[in-house]
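## retry 2 of 3
previous attempt timed out at serialization; input unchanged, resubmitting
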Amino acid sequence: MGLGFPKKPSPPMAPFVPPPIDDPSFRVTALIDHHRTVPNLTPALSWGNDDGTVTDISHFEFARAAHRAAELLRPGRGGGEEVDGATVAILAMTDALIAQTLVAGCILAGLLPFPISPRNPEAALIHLLISTKAHRIIVTRASVGPIVDPLVESMATKYPSYNLTVEELPTFKQLYPYLSRETPDDPFTPYPLASAAPASTDPALILHSSGSTGLPKPIVLSNSVFLSFCRLENIAEMARCAPRFYTGMMPTFHAFAILVHIMTPLVHGMTSCLAPPATVEGYRVPPAPSPDSVLLNARKAKVQGIVTVPAFVLDWAKNDKDVEYLVSLNILVFGSGPLASKVGDDLVRRGVKFGQVYGSTESGPTNKLVATGLDKHEWSWMEMSERAQVRWEPAGNGIFEAQYLTAEGIYHPAVENLPDVRGYSTRDLFEQHPTKPHLYRIVGRLDDVIVLGNGEKAVPGPMEDILSASPHVAGVVIFGRGRLQLGLLVQPSPARAIDPNDQEQLAEYRNLIWSVVEEANAIAPTFAWIYKEMIVVTESGRPMVKSPKGSVAKKATLELYAKEIDTLYDTIEARSNAASEASLPFAWTVPNLQPWLLFHASSLSGKTIDHAIDLFEQGFDSLNATFLRHRIVGALRAAPVTLDRAQAIPQNLIYTHSSVEKLAHALEGLVNGSTGDGRREAAAAIEAMVAKYSSGLDVVLAERQIPSSDGAVVLLTGSTGGLGSHMLELLVPNPAIKKIFAFNRSNEKVSILQRHEAAFADRALDSVVLKSEKLVFMEGDSTRSDLGLSPQEYTELQQSVTLIIHNAWALDFNKTLVTFEPHVVGTRNLIDFARSTTADPRFVFTSSAGSVQSWNPSHGPVPEETLDASVAVGVGYGESKYVAERLLAASGLRATSIRIGQVTGSASNGAWSTSEWVPGIVKSSITLGHFPADPGAFVPFISPEAVAKAVVDTALLNGQEVPVLLNVVHPRPVSWDFAFGALAKASGVGKLVSIDAWLREVEGRAVSSTATDLEQVPAIKIVEFLRTTISRLTRVTFSTSRVDEITSALKDMKELDERDVEKWIGYWRGSGFI
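## retry succeeded, writing output
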């Protein structure tokens, strides 16, 4: 038999009459009472019964019940103005129908309802009560008495003057005397409503945050906020998609419950279906929802849609019968967190139709339930409401934070916390769809972004979603803040529980889940990959900490396993890993080493490696190189005959021998005690590359006209980098520039505009220039003869470009010349392009002072002219820049190469890339406790603003005669000891030691470096570069007489001072690097 009395015969039901929520004078009290006065006899809330019937509570009956609740809470509207707006806390475990009727009754009575989660600890409850001035608590003493009684005692002890009244929740029969059968003919005394409507700014309701990052915070929803949420499209779409929605699993104190139990039924007439109430005949604790009970109650209630959380969807996906039922629904809506993509993809393939609710207590439901133009497989993408005023704030790496701006009369977030405008910063991070710009997908939170020790920023959310979908996994947390690489903490499913201290079981479990780890790595940049060595498995007696929503409480879980994580980073050396991954090489000879190295290189990179091709051209990065070196050292240490050779492995071994073939020969030679090539051979290799790529440049060009002076058309490469961004900011507003093609490599994950926006935001540059009509963004590949452009694009450039500024070049102090060969290829392709253009273009190349890294200081200042290849011998970066200089000198173009000294952080905010050598020294010195002193050295640090001006001024130089080479360095360099003494002071270290002692200490760490060493002392990776190249260049002076004739950029520069240094330190601290 169903719950409720036998119904009286009634005429056919009239259609739902919606409330006039667009009326500016409309208030929440009117929203509730509208349904009584119309009256709307349509079902607002409902549940199914065991006998196949359903019990409906009409909108009319709900409104009358709210009047009864108001009378019970504030009889006859007594108490006057002193009671108006008083907070009433609701700390109860009761049925949703009673809880939400009580909320509505409070509002009608002029009180401020504040439903509170009983799961909050006592300290949080006290904080919430006091901060909202709540002196009344409505409770269900039979269930929350053990919480309330100690709470009252604590309040009396700690705050004796704070009056607190505890009252029992009204009963079902008090509120619903005609349960499910009330009509306008039934006796009823309306509650006396206020004579004047509340102001739009008056509070209507208080909710609270989860408290996951501290004490929960009360969040006040004013009338205008509440009603602006009601006007959002998401609510209307729910009613259209499924007239009867199962919503019974939402906790009544949660904002999601207010959305689906009150807002949607009262505004758009949707029937919100609940679990059958437990307290009709007397109080009982309502049973907690489970995946099984939700589907059972949904079937009974005859719904067309279900609102749920991802954890329940994961459970249903494992049962074919459950999935069959989900497929029969009009829609399955999830919210309160992301759904694992693998699970969602599988359910969509089987016919499930998804919708999603994104939002928060502070912002409301700001997305559309189902995005427009959405293909089935794109179920995880969302479109924001047109009413919600979203601002996408770049957060780096093509990621954006959603911020919602206040628009009076249209949309109003509950919290305004933006510094520049009225609006709410969600701290939720999204990526934009690569081809449908109106679609976005959530990838995590600003709080979750992991800033690695090298300054790279990893967003773990999407990877964790994939990992969580594995049937062998019960929980995951990716960690690595401030470290060199990411790690994974994983809790096995109960059937796969292991003893993580048993190395065999650990290896077996890592292998079991490795395929899903590889799947997660596939969507991440290489610096964010998880390696098998970096997987920590939880103990069965120490499970991960879970939040009330059932998700992993990351901070608490990482604290629980802090010791194991620290131990992992301390012992990451490959000594044990090498033996566990594969057998040792049979012999340290090339035929035996080559397959062994191929195995490791392939397993680390996730690709099939060719033994003869440069590793870095096949996707290797610095982290791969670090692990490969560790495994080599581990293998050498594992055999007594080669133990002593492990000490001789240089830190840059993989970079100087960057193919498996070369590495095998180097290791064979090292074990046998042989040595490598000298400087003469290196200079010969440079000359050979110059000869290879200058072939054909001696062909005389046909005479072309120098471009007219009506405005230059610029092709700028590398405009998303540090210097490139500053040049772009100067070029766009320059009246001498007619058009700019900003040319960069394509990126499938992030649009070229987003990359520019992120670069400008990082350096505090004026992003207005990015909206200029002068600016055209282009994506291509300079290593291709057609620059990776379509024939139409290439022809357009040929016919219009009059100035080329080539600025795109990777920075890496460990790679060899051959590794930079693709950059040389790109330069030659740009030269060929320039030789084919209609006009005779200017060509400016941003070279480096490193192209003369072997200049002998005793020869005086470096002249502004082309020099012999011997001066370029050293690290591959400088050598490759030298090759490009030579190519341009032989190109027959009006070309200028500019040797640029060490560029510092931006003058505006100190932004200085953490991949460069100066930040590496700073972080390492902070770890070591002292900075290096070098009394004989000078540092010609130069700001990017000055360099950008010098480059642009040189580029716009008119006439046939142009300088082939210029030097752009600070004309008044400061001493090394002044610069690094100021860095030491600003970083709080203060102490300096000789650079020789400092380098020896770094080299000592490099001998058997752990991952922690590499993360905390990044100078380990460039110690040979510091000892050789930097020690020479800091004693070299440069002539700047010719550049001074062209630009005032250097002459106008101020000398470096402590204020500059403090900005750099501030930027590195702000980015989490130090």
